[in-house]
Amino acid sequence: MSCLQAHIGKIKNYFVAVFTLLITVGVNAQFYNKEYVGKILVKKDSEFFTFTATAENITPTDVNLKYDFSLYQTDANNNVTRSNQSDRFFLKGNEKKVLSTVTVNYNAEGKITLVLMLYDSDDKPVGQDRIELSSEKGYQEIIKDKLSPQEEAVSQDQAAPQDGYMMNGLVVENTLTKAGRDFYKYFYSEYYNRGIQTKKNIVIDEVPGRMRSTRISVKIDDQLLWQFFSQPKKSFLQSMAKTALDRCIAYLQQLQKQKENSITRY
Fold this sequence. Notes:
Layout: H1 2-27, E1 36-44, E2 48-57, E3 63-74, E4 80-91, E5 96-105, E6 111-119, E7 125-134, E8 141-143, H2 149-154, E9 171-174, H3 178-193, E10 202-208, E11 214-220, E12 223-229, H4 234-265
Parallel strand pairs: 9-10
Antiparallel strand pairs: 1-2, 2-5, 3-4, 3-6, 6-7, 7-8, 10-11, 11-12
Helix pairs in contact: 3-4
Keywords: Signal
Function: May be involved in the biogenesis of curli organelles.
Protein name: Curli production assembly/transport component CsgE
């Protein structure tokens, strides 16, 4: 009997943990993602969902944070299991970083909830995201939470559409030389590895410059964000790619803040 009671108590503890966490996320959502944004990105492969936990610093100040990325799975008997990944990490000003990934098979049964939490150095929650899946139709599908009109307007550049997926903007290449193509390759690698999601197109142009060099520029919405005279050196091009992407992220964050402020005033 004591073993049975212990098992029941364990299940109750799981439910209490899940319930408390989800209520906290729902009630306090307005206090999160103000300076440090937690976001779970979704990718659909042939047999799996891939969920990627990301953190974005929308301030110019470097910071040490902690993340907790949890997956809760409830089976047909209401037994709850939890898998968890947690660690501390460093985030530079205006940087976006991939923290962890987890895959879920379409054929997995039961209800699945993924929760990402970000904590500051005092273990105070500062960022969050949540995704729920259900297998009621015989396969896992994402249940989209209904956002308020203000949240929908503020997050429309990053939020997925109603089917759970997002049509990303493009990184457009208009280059002339090997150095230009190499810069594009390094830039796009950084763009992909950081899990950038935006509906804005980023345009990389290369035009003849001074002497035998060319001038490479990076723009969003015809807004020039970074330009330089090219060099064939790999380390130089990689440094320029990182700097250019940092400028793009800062610009996208600025656009989002302006949108949020205009919605708030309205």
